[in-house]
Amino acid sequence: MKEKFGWLMALACFFAVFLTGCGEMKMPEDVSEQTVYISREGQITLWLVTDFKGLDYKISELTSMAVQEVTKFNSGRAQNDVVTLDKVETIPDDSSKVAVIYKFGNWKSCTEFIGNELFYGTNELFYGTVSEAFAADYGSGAILKDVKDHSLYTEAQLKQAADKMLIVTDVKANVYCPGKVAYISEGCKMNEDGSVNTFEVEGLAYILLK
User: Fold this and answer.
1) In this structure, which long-range contacts are made by residues 35-38, counting pairs with CB atoms below 8 Å and at least 24 apart in sequence?
2) 175: phi then psi, degrees, rounded to nearest 5
3) Maximum separation of any 2 CA atoms in the chain, in Å
4) How many C-beta neighbours within 10 Å does residue 179 have?
5) What letters, b where the CB count within 10 A reaches 16 and e where it falls short, cover 130-156?
6) CA-CA distance, 158 to 41, in Å (whole number)?
7) Which string of b and e fits 35-66 if b means at least 16 CB within 10 Å?
8) From CA 97, how far away is CA 52, in angstroms rounded?
9) How far is CA 95 from CA 32, 59, 65, 102, 105, in A?
10) Long-range contact pairs involving 152-156 (C-beta distance under 8 Å, separation at least 24)
């Protein structure tokens, strides 16, 4: 009986690992700071967290503004290139902060959306292979470090990891990645839950997955 129970537990653990995408992080449930979640398929969820205290807006008015912005952006776009407004809500335990939650089908539509006046016209987010990153003009001069021993990982080494998945962004956020993190660039910090803190990064943050 014990052998049977042990076998069932092992099988359950196998499927638990399989269904979570071999290291893909779960979407965070409670968000109190600006956050980015990237799925293995490249779909992106963004929590835009702002200080609501002192603003002359109600949640309903802020929601209406967000809906108008999304509608304008989506006009004439293919289904995979649209942005979806998931919800607008106050942060639990901190009613002075509001999270506007957006969902994107891919990194290109995300970068185009957050590159407008919403993020002061400067923000971008790339997710793809290293070779795709260099083709998109990312990676020049990049220097990363191992998350375990902090050994350096140069641009030349990065180019050799052509098929590895890479995240490049200047969004200040906690970034939840679609796999385990191997290397990060200067200023990035690993959070206890495995996400990457980019709040103190100057310029672009590079996150290379295993």
Assistant:
1) 35/173, 35/174, 35/175, 35/176, 35/195, 36/125, 36/169, 36/171, 36/173, 36/174, 36/175, 36/176, 37/176, 38/127, 38/167, 38/175, 38/176, 38/177, 38/178
2) -105, 120
3) 66
4) 20
5) bebbbeeebbeebebeebeeeeebeee
6) 22
7) bbbbbbebbbbbbbbeebeeeeeeeeebbeeb
8) 5
9) 11, 11, 19, 20, 30
10) 153/183, 153/208
Residue 17 clears pLDDT 80, i.e. is over it: no
pLDDT-above-70 percentage for the chain: 85
Scan for tokens 């052509």, then name that residue. Answer: 162
Is pTM, for the whole model, over 0.70?
Answer: yes
Residue-wise pLDDT tens digits, 141-184: 999 999 999 999 999 999 999 999 999 999 999 999 999 999 99
| Contact residues for 125 (Cβ-Cβ < 8 A; gap 6+) | 36, 44, 107, 110, 111, 114, 167, 168, 169, 171
Interatomic CA distance for residues 146 and 173, integer angstroms: 20
Say how far apart CA 10 and CA 7 lie, in whole Å.
5
**Residue 126 near residue 169 (C-beta atoms within 8 A):** yes
